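Preliminary data (for renewal application), NAP complex.
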Amino acid sequence: MKKLLWINGEFVGTEKYLPLYNPFNGEKIAEVAAASDGDVLRAIDAAESAAKTMAEMEAFKRADILQGVADLIKEEREECARIIAEESSKPLRAARGEVDRTIMTYSFAAQEARRIHGETVPLDAAPGGEGRIAYTVKEPLGVIAAITPFNFPMNLVAHKVGPALAAGNSVVLKPASQTPLSAYKIASYFHRAGLPAGALNVVTGSGKSVGDVLIKDDRVKKVTFTGSPEVGKYIRENAGLKKVTLELGSNSALIVDEGTDLAKVMPRIVTGSFSNQGQVCISIQRIFVHESISEEFTALFIEESKKLKVGNPLDEETDISAMITSNDVTRAKSWIQAAIENGAELALGGDSDQQVLYPTILLNAKETDKISCEEVFAPVVHINTFREFDEAIAKVNDSQFGLQAGVYTKDLNKAFKATKSLHVGGVMINDIPTFRVDHMPYGGVKMSGTGREGIKYAIEEMTELKLVSFKLD
Ligand code: NAP
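Predicted structure:
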């Protein structure tokens, strides 16, 4: 199967194509176009001219197109899930979950498209402002470049394309090289739903070369990026005066206080630790358990993790499958080994089979071990204990990242203390840090990024506020 670029409402060939392999079995699944600089520039040309059409399009029409896409995905839910499972090795049940969330995300975008509005401003609150009526409007920015990662190839595209089009912008989308098929599928749905040609363009190819053309072109008014902190920093440093949203990584933590009903919460903690092979930006990586319950916690956690079924992502029963690249398996294993050599105890896993890394649990890793202080982005979790609640909060905050944190506690005072003291973008009381629904504000502090997604919040960052003042005679 040859996948061409999607520019100005049609599939366009290019000179170079790269093979795309299924990460689980190594089979070739497609030949994917690698856009040249000229191709990317043509995509920006198309987006620039469509930006005018989009800016003039009525809100209800934008809403109808977005809802149309949500409906088309719903009709082809199974096909979409299989595309995700094949190209990213996300187990089928989780892939279906992602498709359902994508439907929600475009539905929210359709709803938000209808309620983008400003406010009246009482200019006469200041001397000199009398005799005027003023209001604000939110105008689209124009061309937005969206760069997305492999781990939620459909829903994270939706989190950028949905609000961008809802607000009347046009988009050039650069999906991750490992997961282009979901992005091209979405482009075909937008075409079928009636989106004007050029309003959404998809260009695949090397992140650096496609990214550089997008980042440096003055016609691109905003870069919205989800991916690794390293690339996020590069974009921020090279995007000039463009608006930039960065949704980056983390080493998310969970605090489990004394009094927690461990049997009740354990399945959820295991899911939050190992779902999608731990390749989730809010995957549980560090667990801090009160010392009075730590033995019971560890025993139950190991027992529950052993129930996970490892296998082909297309099997209904599979919970854990291949990681995205063999390099990531090698990297994670070297970090596990280094932690063990530094005194950590291996309680489960640590082995791999081809590109599958088995769920791995370590005890008492040091905060300076890479499996603790860097983003591991693999099915690797470590458990440490605490005596005082303040100590646990300090340990969670002792991180270069700050995306979300979870706290299980029965004590209301501790819960409020945690909400106030944890330096993260979102605090989940009596839940795992991995909790997300698609309309909530979502984003990080510190190295986890800047800006917020969650349709309404992304729209804020994809529009420009204009003040209008009428001086009355
Ligand atoms: P990545 O390697 O940073 O890639 C993300 C995207 O950036 C891909 O499309 C990639 O293209 C592109 N890219 C690479 N180099 C680039 C450059 N120099 N300029 C512009 N674009 C460039 O990240 P990933 O491995 O796909 O995803 C994992 C990371 O994403 C983790 O750190 C995870 O925590 C983070 N993430 C964050 C969130 C959030 O909402 N905060 C959500 C999901 C994932 P190629 O594929 O062609 O290299």
